[in-house]
Design goal:
- By secondary structure, this protein is α/β, with parallel strands linked by helices.
- It folds into two domains: about 145-270 and about 325-405 and about 575-645, 3-Layer(bba) Sandwich (FAD/NAD(P)-binding domain), CATH 3.50.50; about 275-315 and about 410-490 and about 510-570, Cholesterol Oxidase, domain 2, CATH 3.30.410.
- The chain is about 35% helix and about 15% strand.
- It has 20 helices and 24 strands.
- The chain has a seven-stranded antiparallel beta sheet with strand order 8-16-17-18-15-21-22, covered by helices on one side. Strands 10-3-2-14-24 form a five-stranded parallel beta sheet, covered by helices on one side.
- Helix 8 (about 160-170) links the parallel strand 2 (about 155) and strand 3.
- The termini are far apart.
Length: about 650
């Protein structure tokens, strides 16, 4: 494994004009930072289908690979990258090694590459528990053995859906218990280091790769879920999307009915444009949009204030308590109303009898080992996210034939520009500007344009690799790179199934002709925006690495982007939805118009998985508004049941 890692990140003799910092950069290899040993420890944690993809790559490398000269190892690696049968596994391995090399910290929370890149590393020491105490009420387990708890409602998941529902049900006087698979980590637990934060805050420790690795998916797995790690972009659900949801059978989805829910959640999380300060990446995007004659808006952000000094590591959690995640808002409201939280809790099954919910069975990870927990509850709210919620329903024998189908992923694509000016894209607020001009590029489907999150591991890991020297050379100019992304409101869909361990297995492909047309258009328009903003060079994360440099034929570059094949496109996803869709027909949907399962009374779905079509915007506000709407129906039905139970 050391030979592979050092093929990707070799020691290279520094050029004569290299600075002291650059000497260290060029002469450091992956194995010098123990990346090979870290990779060995990570590989067993990957999903079985990823193991198969990776094994296919390793089998293709010659038996003498480790003993071959560096140039021959590089040639072999380029061969597996070029072969469609080995490319997926090669990209998974390559992106992991590269990201680890540039983000793994030493004992001083630094990395020897950072001085040459101009990357500052952590800006603050983690605060103390005195400064930021944990204020949510955590449920206590019995001293030994299994624990049985009785409540009025159990909520599975603590993110945008679960947090909102828990707050409303607790405010209505219900005894509420929130079960969260991830840990309860607040400010003192967030080191502002990607290599340490991502394994602890995201499902699967980072990217969840689809069966063929054609899409890498990010999903939060911690108290607060995605609201703890997202980029804080707050957008209302578009009216044309609400019309689709209403047509699918969702009650309360008209603009007049859904609008108050949007307004309520945005007020609670303090989502206002006054909190927004454009960083250099967003200013460059704005410059390009203006020069191209396109419209733009300043995004509202769910922040405590407009302090932008420490926002660059927002996707690794907020170190200063500014982000108004559900941990800071709705979960706190639930706790203040008597609700309780049980973190490190993996819900294995929803218990039901005679068509009604009776509770859940879960396993809690404790310092003394795993503990069984049974929660008795007539109301079960599933809000574990669009990847995990369908798996829980499948394991419970619930949801009908459509559970796990209709998965939408907002497929996302990145284009980068290289500028004369210093950008330092990792600093400041991440998402602050948006353009909706292309949201109807193909009928009701298109893409949204925003500035790209430029986390160091993300950018270094996905920059195309042609040789160890070329890749290192590109990183030395990273502080001059600015990115833009477009995420597509997908027309096609995929599916989610569970593996033997209850982890989601995603099948998704860019095989819908509408989506492929939108993706091609997105790459072309993003390139036009970057050129209009003054980029001297433009490149992508596509494996084929199409590029344009100032003075070259730009129209020819656009033509290459407009003729991309689906097999040549690497897709990323930070927004998943639709895998337990709302509808009227139990054969084609999972929940009815009020969010309750067709096949089991008392079980509701209150997260993005219930959205019948993709929201087409950053989804947090849409999910929270949908959850608030669903919670109102739950409260109504609970009150009705309470009244009926006391009637003579």
């Amino acid at each position: 494994m050391a030979a592979l890692c050092d093929t990707l990140v070799p020691r290279i003799s520094p050029p004569p004009a290299a600075t002291t910092e650059e000497h260290v950069f060029w002469s450091t290899s992956a194995s010098d930072l123990a990346v090979d040993r870290i990779l060995d420890s990570v590989l067993p944690l990957w999903a079985p289908h990823v193991h198969i993809l990776v094994a296919r790559v390793l089998d293709r490398l010659s038996e003498s690979f480790a003993d071959s000269p560096a140039h021959q190892r590089a040639e072999q690696w380029l061969t597996v990258l070029a072969d469609p049968s080995t490319r997926p596994g090669a990209l998974v391995l390559q992106s992991t090694v590269l990201a680890m090399f540039y983000t793994v910290p030493d004992d001083a929370s630094s990395n020897p590459t950072w001085p040459a890149l101009g990357f500052p590393g952590p800006l603050l020491e983690p605060p103390t528990a005195v400064q930021f105490p944990k204020t949510l009420t955590v449920a206590e387990l019995s001293e030994s053995g299994s624990t049985t708890v009785s409540v009025d409602a159990v909520v599975v998941g603590s993110g945008a859906g679960g947090g909102v529902v828990a707050a409303r049900l607790a405010a209505a006087g219900m005894r509420v218990l929130v079960l969260e698979k991830g840990a309860y980590r607040n400010e003192p637990d967030l080191p502002q280091l990607e290599a340490l934060s991502f394994p602890n805050l995201y499902l699967g420790g980072g990217f969840v790769w689809s069966t063929d690795a054609s899409v890498g998916l990010l999903a939060g797995s911690t108290v607060g879920g995605g609201t703890t790690v997202n980029s804080m972009a707050c957008l209302p659900t578009p009216e044309y999307v609400l019309a689709e949801w209403a047509e699918a059978g969702m009650e309360g989805a008209s603009t007049d009915e859904f609008g108050p829910h949007i307004e309520s959640v945005m007020a609670r999380i303090n989502a206002v444009p006054a909190n927004t300060v454009h960083n250099s990446v967003n200013r460059i995007l704005n410059r390009g949009l203006d020069a191209a004659g396109l419209n733009r808006k300043t995004l509202a952000r769910n922040a405590q204030d407009d302090d932008a000094r420490f926002c660059g590591e927002c996707n690794a959690g907020c170190l200063v308590g500014c982000k108004q995640s559900t941990m800071k808002t709705f979960l706190q409201d639930a706790s203040d109303s008597g609700g309780q939280l049980l973190p490190n809790c993996d819900v294995r099954e929803i218990k039901h009898a005679d068509g009604r919910a009776v509770g859940v069975h879960a396993v809690v990870s404790t310092p003394d080992g795993d503990r069984d927990v049974v929660v008795e509850a007539p109301i079960v709210v599933v809000a574990a996210g669009a990847l995990a919620s369908p798996v829980l329903l499948q394991r419970s024998g619930l949801g009908g034939p459509s559970v796990g189908r209709n998965l939408h992923v907002h497929p996302s694509y990145f284009v980068s520009g290289v500028y004369d000016e210093v950008v330092k894209g990792w600093a400041g607020q991440i998402l602050t500007s948006v353009s909706h001009d292309f949201e109807h590029a193909e009928g009701e489907h298109g893409f949204v344009v925003e500035a790209a999150p430029m986390g160091l591991g993300f950018w270094t890991g996905l920059t195309p690799w042609h040789s160890g020297e070329q890749h290192k050379q590109e990183q030395l100019r990273l502080e001059h790179v600015s990115g833009v992304w477009g995420f597509v409101r997908d027309h096609g869909s995929g599916r989610v199934d569970g593996d033997a361990h209850g982890m989601p297995v995603v099948t998704w492909g860019l095989d819908d002709p509408v989506d492929l047309a939108v993706v091609r258009r997105a790459h072309r328009e993003l390139a036009r925006i970057l050129r209009a903003s003054g980029a001297k060079e433009i490149f992508t994360f596509l494996p084929s690495d199409p590029r344009w440099r100032e003075g070259e034929d730009f129209d020819a570059f656009l033509d290459s982007l407009g003729s991309l094949d689906a097999a040549d496109i690497l897709t990323l996803s930070a927004h998943q939805s639709g895998s337990c869709p709302t509808g009227l027909d139990p054969e084609t949907s999972v929940v009815n118009g009020r969010g309750r399962l067709h096949d089991c009374s008392g079980v509701y779905v209150a997260d993005a998985s219930a959205l019948p079509t993709a929201p087409g915007v950053n989804p947090m506000v849409s999910i929270e508004a949908y959850a608030r709407r669903t919670a109102e129906f739950i409260v109504q039905e609970w009150y009705s049941a309470q009244r009926n139970s006391v009637q003579p």
